[in-house]
Specification:
The protein is an alpha+beta fold and 181 residues long. Helix content is 23%, strand content 39%. The strands form four sheets. Strands 3, 4, 5, 8, 11, 12 and 13 form a seven-stranded antiparallel β-sheet that branches. A two-stranded antiparallel sheet has the order 1-2.
């Protein structure tokens, strides 16, 4: 294992940025045989934006239910800015009934996707904005880091696959389309 440390340090140095701010959502991934995958760098998450043909007040009224149905605990709810979020929580294996690897790319281990076996720190934010002709813009951002449970290792950044953001918008659209009882 000691022989691997200089190799990892060399790889990290080789992948280091030559200056300037990162752009886009690029992630440097380094695979080390027998050890697994290490995500080296990544820019901050980009919001997924969807438009709904419903007024913002109706969308806001349904958004909390969508978070609950996806098993995302709400820690922030601001009616003034129409923002609902979870500022970060630890999770393992699944979000609700869905494997985390369906939502996140955190690299792979010899056993499969890291998102399904690592401790993941997940943050989800959705912001509603009024759009043209009484419609609503839904902006969702998912950010996550992961680290192995059995080893003392710094967390590595995960990237969103866009699936959770899509589910938020789809479930919100479905909730709004259902007739009121």
């Amino acid at each position: 294992m000691r022989a691997l440390l200089p190799l990892v340090a060399l790889v990290v140095a080789a992948c280091a940025s030559s200056g300037g701010a990162p752009t886009g959502r690029a992630t440097e991934t380094v695979r080390i045989d027998g050890v697994g995958t290490l995500n080296m760098a990544g820019a901050s998450a980009t919001a997924s934006v969807t438009s709904l043909a419903y007024p913002i007040d109706q969308a806001w009224a349904a958004l909390r239910t969508v978070y609950d149905s996806l098993a995302i605990p709400v820690t922030t709810q601001d009616p003034a800015t129409h923002t609902i979020a979870n500022d970060g929580f630890k999770i393992r294996n699944r979000l609700g009934k869905t494997a985390l690897s369906r939502y996140l790319e955190c690299g792979n281990t010899q056993m499969g996707p890291s998102a399904d076996s690592y401790e993941v720190y997940l943050s989800v934010t959705t912001h509603l904005k009024p759009a043209d002709a009484g419609s609503t813009s839904v902006e969702s951002t998912v950010e996550a880091t992961a680290r192995p449970v059995q080893f003392a290792q710094a967390p590595s950044r995960c990237t969103s696959k866009g699936e959770l953001e899509t589910r938020i918008a789809t479930q919100l659209r479905t909730a709004l389309a259902q007739p009121k009882r």
